[in-house]
Amino acid sequence: MAAPGAPVTVTVTYSNEKHSIQVASQQEDGEPTLQDMAVLIEQVTGVPVPFQKLIYKGKSLKELEQPLSALGVKNGCKVMLIGKRGFLAKDLQAEALKQLDKRIKGTAEQFMKILEQIDAINLPENFSDCKLKKKGLVKRVQVFLAQCDTVEGNIGQEMDKLQSKNLALAE
Fold it and tell me: Counting Cβ atoms within 10 Å, is residue 93 exposed (0-12), middle (13-18) or buried (19+)?
């Protein structure tokens, strides 16, 4: 067993990757805690602490303030990491946003083509009921276009946030 305050070496399995990490306490003369290990795991894997689910010997480790020794985690132990739903690795976020933006732009283009097709429909004067339905259809397609614009704006904001975070990390 490691001496109190001594770093603990743990193998973390995440997807198909294995990472050997050495967990030391962030407190002077303290024992390494689950929080210390979770922060290191975030640095190594990119999975933020709130999205981590750590499993050791079939049990979920949840009490971040607990020393690793109290949880039975010792030198040479293996811990499994599961990135909880809602998480997308940082390097994949930008790519996912780009793909989503492309799809939204394609969808908006399709709606524009539909509007052009609706506009190309010529109805005789005495088809007033059909003209009302045509007008209603145009309004519905315009609502969909507005929603596409809103989503496109939100994607742009998220891409800007991601870019500013990346620039801040680079400095």
Answer: middle
Question: Is 52 buried (19+), middle (13-18) or exposed (0-12) by CB count in 10 A?
Answer: buried
β-pairing verdict for 77-83 and 8-14? parallel
pTM (2 decimals)?
Answer: 0.51
- Residue 156 structure tokens: 């742009």
pLDDT (0 to 100) of residue 164: 81
Residue 57 and residue 45: Cα distance in Å, rounded? 21
* Collapsed DSSP state (helix, strand, coil) of residue 56: strand
Res. 1: pLDDT tops 60: no
pLDDT tens-digit profile of 38-72? Answer: 999 988 888 888 889 999 999 999 999 999 999 99
Cβ 47 vs Cβ 14: under 8 Å = yes
Cα separation of the two ends of the chain = 41
State how far the Cα of 27 lies from the Cα of 51, in Å rounded to an integer.
24
Contact 123, 131 (CB under 8 A): yes
